[in-house]
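1st attempt posting a full record on here, be nice pls
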Amino acid sequence: MIYSLRGTFTHREPGLAVIECGGVGYGCRTSYNTITALGDTGREVTVYTHLSVREDAVELYGFATQEELSCFRLLISVSGVGPKAATAILSDMTPERFAFFIAAGDSKSFTRVKGIGAKTAQRIVLELKDKVGGGDTQIRVGAGSFSGGAAAVPSDAYSEAMEALMVLGYTQGEAASCLAKLDPSLPTQDLIREALRLMSGK
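the predicted structure (as tokens):
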């Protein structure tokens, strides 16, 4: 498995970034957000990758952040959602927005992406929300599952931010630790963004 590529960003076109490593140019299918994040060609960059192997094609997908790669892998785990649809979704929204829509159960926002119908959007939210907070793993914040600063955060905002961070691949403990350090008055999307900033050390 190719976990990541670090090399020179040599070529760009819609949906494709070429990263040259040791004289070999790796063509990575990717999102608009990653293309934008990589900046100008000629720079040294790192992308986190997923190798898609099908009967008719072997393609490498690359993303600027591990969060975006996590979102991509979650999306392609949904029945009826392939790599092309997943990159279209991630071209239209950031990982933070994606995680927020899943945590909030907002399927309508996914229908704004070209090619994503209402049934597919509902399936995305249903399957991914269930993976994060369904069944015995349901996050119960209002019942006092966490202590310290997190208890002061409104339960609805905290619950949605917690689920969103777990959608992005963080553990419940990591998410709770970061959220406990944040301003309790922040809305859900700001809690997600600030928690990600803390986790990345920026």
